[in-house]
Amino acid sequence: MLSPGAVASAVQYDQALQSASPAEVIAAALEAAGRDGLALVSSFGTESAALLKVMADVDPAIPVLFLDTGWMFEETLAYRDQLILTLGLRDVRTIRPATDALAAHDSDGDLWSSDPDTCCRIRKVEPLAQALAPFSAWINGRKRFQGASRAAIPVVETDGGKLKFNPFANVTPDEIGLIYASAKLPPHPLVASGFASVGCMPCTSRTAHGEDPRAGRWRGRAKTECGIHTSAG
Ligand code: SF4
């Protein structure tokens, strides 16, 4: 259960950080939770390097949690390793689904097709909840420009009794491009072949010019989120 105090602080942090830069938001999260109480969750996707660069400039030892669902592109795993070296990330932790959950629900490896919500639950939501258990606050890279479901995200909110900081809530695609350009960050290897947003292999497709960047995720289904950001409000 979320304590009334945590709700009050999320609202207060959100109000105080409305105009803060991403680095200032991460510094505030660090001050609020301490390095032992704070984690950044990254998919090592097409825009991830920008947030990881800002975090590394604040403190490269903040724990970074990466969910390897078992369905990641090889290119994403290689990109993770490249960014660890490029940015000097000191504490990247790869977390995986529980083997008993996979055996019970997805022994044939086709749950993504028949029941993607359960697949996301056992491969993403539950492992992440377990990995986040020791932390009181976390950082993620969602942006308001990513579509209707993210258009109103606050800078700071509560989720499952924890503070959740969204340092990129207010940023624009151009600002992200600027971070990549000024720091000479390597692009995700799949961007060049038309992937604007990269998640699990079976649920990711290329996007056409002018399409919403996340249109290639779960294409043809009503699903737009994996559940990581919708579990606790
Ligand atoms: S994105 Fe697709 S493959 Fe990945 S966990 Fe969700 S349903 Fe399964």
Automatic annotation (TrEMBL):
Record bears the keyword Aminoacyl-tRNA synthetase:
no
Q: In which pathway does it act?
A: Sulfur metabolism; hydrogen sulfide biosynthesis; sulfite from sulfate
In Gene Ontology terms, what is one molecular function of this protein? adenylyl-sulfate reductase (thioredoxin) activity
An example Gene Ontology CC term for this record? cytoplasm
Biological processes per GO annotation: hydrogen sulfide biosynthetic process; sulfate assimilation, phosphoadenylyl sulfate reduction by phosphoadenylyl-sulfate reductase (thioredoxin)
* Record's keyword annotation contains Metal-binding: yes
What protein am I looking at?
Adenosine 5'-phosphosulfate reductase
Q: Which organism is it from?
A: Tardiphaga robiniae
